[in-house]
Amino acid sequence: MTWRPQYRSSKFRHVFGKAATKEGCYDGVPITRSVQDNNFCAVNPRFLAVITECAGGGAFLVLPVHHTGKVDPHQPRVSGHRGNVLDIKWNPFNDYCIASCSEDATVKVWDIPPHGVLKNITVPWKELQGHSRRVGLIEWHPTANNILFSTAYDYKVMIWNLDCPEPVIKNPVRTISHHTDVVLSMSFNTDGSLLATTCKDRKVRLMEPRSGNLLQESNCKTHKASKVLILGNMKMLLTSGTSRWNDRQVALWDQDDLSVPLVQDNLDGSSGVLFPFFDPDTHMLYLAGKGDGNIRYYEISSEKPYLHYLTEYRSLLPQKGMGVMPKRGLDVSSCEVFRFYKLVTTKSLIEPLSMIVPRRSESYQEDIYPMTAGYKPALTAEEWLSDIDKGPVLMSLKPGSQVAESYSELNKGVGNSLDSRRSQSRPNMMQLAYIQDQLGSRDSKEDNGLTEDDRNWMPASKGDDLALCSPPRTENELRLKFHKQQEEIRRLRELLNQRDVHIKQLELEIRNIKNTQPQSSL
User: Fold this and answer.
1) Cα–Cα nearest to 86, from 112, 106, 71
2) Residue 320 · residue 293 · CB < 8 Å
3) Beta bridge partners of 265
4) Cα(first)–Cα(last) distance of the chain, in Å?
5) Which of 39, 155, 160, 387 has fewest C-beta within 10 Å?
6) Which residue(s) pair with 275 in the sheet?
7) Contact (Cβ atoms closer than 8 angstroms) between residue 248 and residue 270
8) Of 160, 158, 159, 205, whose CA–CA distance to 179 is shortest?
């Protein structure tokens, strides 16, 4: 009997990384030189935010995600902190709301105008004062609206409820004090009922975020964890850190037993921190090392050996941090399953990197795009605080299956108190949002009256956000607009040629019918 290797079939075996062209990158960005082990970048389908280097206080840039090319050195910033900004995170249910934490021991939540940052923003929507030392990490709750978690160098994790009228909040909803040193990372499960943390004491802790009760605590001496992820609903945790011999290492843990890891895998002897990223829809794990140019990716299964190495993306440009685009912002027409935004400090560059599943067909691939977490919260802050847990509201990524709500409708739906504040402080912005809403509803009505062929040949600019259709400011933007316009013209010409052929065919059929009628009458 001959030995045969057992190959594991996987639709993601041949996933490859495709870096954006120079025109598709963000050039001239003064990326922060902070040594904090954070990502320094946050992305949503509308905006890209990156922490920048500045003298006196802390600031970060907010750029429209489609405005690539050379960044104006005098670009307005969000600059309200008195110390360096250490972390930024977009609200998962509001693309115009971002939170930041700083060395000044505060957390601030900012309201970004729909048309972008046109002048420096110094006044936040909310300011959270409760920590006694610098705040190093923040996380939004994955299903409850306006619930924010923060952790600082005072070893405390604080839970904040933003659904209150006061602009300055000094009392958190709850304070978790189980840690004996600085918290290095936080991660939620899918419905937000569990919170996992890693600490500088190299222990992994699993707790209930609402009550703060400690459920599990690891004490493994062969693995020193620095980053942790709860792997969706797989009932497993993944940590990245170092082994006893200071090799970079990843470990998989059973969610119900943190005494011994299920799997430990040594990677290399580099010193950079490993940033893990997990896609719960494809069960793919990406490992990006700080200072590395490569990104390894794996597929995780619920059976042994659990961790299946796929391949790696290699580049000569080292990354300082990584931003990740939410699934609803991906390009499904090119079979893109993940998108990074690499911060390259050596060239002051932000480089988008797409992970693509190679497919010959250009149609929508339902097998690689299951229902995913959408932009609507499942709970209000009050519901979550009253001991209710719900999974995320799912949405389909198929084009046309979900109509994105306008900014004003989204705020009404989630009960956000920003509506009244905007109507009082910036009535012009509310008028702009209302006009966009009316135009969007009119466009949707027009789309309903079109045939399937007409939808397939719609110009690309019809689906663009009105707030992003600003005049080009750089030569690269002008060139991109020109190429997009040429592509639309080409598509329209092909559509006209097809209809001309169809008209000629119909005319020929009518002529044949007329010619056969006299013969039949004879």
Assistant:
1) 106
2) no
3) 250
4) 81
5) 387
6) 288
7) yes
8) 205
Q: How far apart are CA 15 and CA 356, in angstroms?
A: 5
Q: Would the CA dihedral through 42, 390, 331, 451 be positive or negative?
A: negative
Spatial contact of 59 and 85, defined as CB atoms under 8 Å apart: yes
Residue at token pair 């933007």: 477
Residue type, position 503, single letter: I
Based on DSSP, count helices (H) and strands (E) in the chain, helices before strands: 6, 33
Q: Is 41 helix (H, G, I), strand (E, B) or coil?
A: strand
pLDDT of 407 above 50 = no
pLDDT at 427: 39
Distance CA 190, CA 391 (A): 6
Q: What is the DSSP letter of 379?
A: B
Average of per-residue pLDDT across 85-114: 95
Looking at the chain, how many residues does it have?
522
- Looking at per-residue pLDDT, the higher value among 478 and 281 belongs to 281
* Residue 21, token pair as written in the block: 């062209």
Residue type, 464: D
Place of tokens 């489609």: 66
Residue predicted with more confidence, 56 or 449: 56
- The upper half-sphere exposure of residue 321, i.e. CA atoms within 13 Å in the direction of its Cβ, equals 23
Beta pairing, strands 41-43 & 372-373: unpaired
DSSP 144: B
Written as six digits, the tokens of 267 are 């990677």
Q: Which of 63-77, 227-241, 275-289, 437-451 has the lowest mean pLDDT?
A: 437-451
Three-state DSSP class for residue 24: helix
| Tokens read off for 145 | 């609206």
Rounded CA-CA distance 54/58 in Å is: 7
pLDDT at 361 over 60: yes
| Residues 141, 147 contacting (CB under 8 angstroms) | yes
List Cβ neighbours of 261 (8 Å cut-off, separation of 6 or more): 220, 223, 239, 251, 252, 253
The owner of tokens 């994790």 is 157
- Burial of 118: CB neighbours in 10 Å, binned 0-12, 13-18, 19+: exposed
Element (H, E) at 286: strand 284-289
- The radius of gyration computed from the CA coordinates of the chain, to the nearest angstrom, equals 26
How many CA atoms, within 13 angstroms, populate the side-chain half-sphere of residue 478?
Answer: 3
In whole angstroms, give the CA distance from residue 114 to residue 433: 8
Residue 68 in contact with residue 167, Cβ under 8 Å? no
Instruction: Please give the Cα distance from 414 to 376 (Å, whole number).
Output: 7
Q: What is d(CA 179, CA 196) in angstroms, rounded to the nearest whole number? A: 12
Dist CA 237 CA 212 (whole Å): 19
Average pLDDT value over all residues in the chain: 84
3 state SS of 53: coil
Provide φ and ψ at 462, rounded to 5°: -70, -30
